[in-house]
Amino acid sequence: xxxxxxxxFTLHDRSDAARRKLVDACHKYLSGHPGTVFYxxxxxxxxxxxxxxxxxxxxxxxxxxxxxxxxxxYQTAPRHLQFIEENKADWKQVRVFDNDAASS
Length: 104
What we know:
The protein is of the alpha+beta class and 104 residues long. Helices cover 32% and strands 33% of the residues. A 4-stranded antiparallel sheet has the order 2-3-1-4.
């Protein structure tokens, strides 16, 4: 079964430049891992400021893995760990949402 890994980063510095820097780091370190079915990262789409939209983040990361084993391997992959090490000082909050993703 597919596994969806969604991460929402809130930054200490919420400027456009800081957001872009983190998106670039996501692309460099978090794309192209074995078992990835889909990858995307981008900044908050602030124009969707409806009451139901959570606006308490700066950058969203979305990775769909082919299975839990691919997700688990990603968690300890050197590029993933390097991403964390190089960027964690910039994070005010990180929220991770993992869920099974059955398609119809």
